[in-house]
Amino acid sequence: MIRVITQTRLAALQGNVARYRERTREVQAAADASYAGHLRAAWALTAEVEAAEREAESHRADAEILREILELTEALLASARATVTEQAARIDALSGDLDAMAGAVVLLHYGLLHSLHPDQQAAEKHAATFGAGLDGWGPVSDRPAAEVAWRIAPLSRWAVADGGGAG
Question: Which H or E element spans position 150?
């Protein structure tokens, strides 16, 4: 089949082709602009993701440092608690010793420290082993301690008076 195209029809077809080409260019330009916008958005999003990943890695590093500091602090706290427990036990022991020493006395021989005893009765018994009488103990006289063979004095008074040399 042969078709005969007239000049008018050919001009109309050529006009259509020109319009379709122009429309194609417009659509292609819009598609190119849209693609370029998509690429810009993709690059921007990629840059944001990379920045967020760098920031997250920085935060992870900070968290690791803080974790190490926390572990060290917990170890120091445990050590401090152990020290406090030890010190409390020592204080209790020393308090017990202090309570035991509250009634302690010193036995002086001519004003010099001879021995330390938990109470006066123990000091008298110890002095008796050196020849002092068990029943000759009385109130302290006004004579100087250096002139008295055996004298008993409270540890608390003796320790602070004249550097421990008074009776």
Answer: strand 150-154
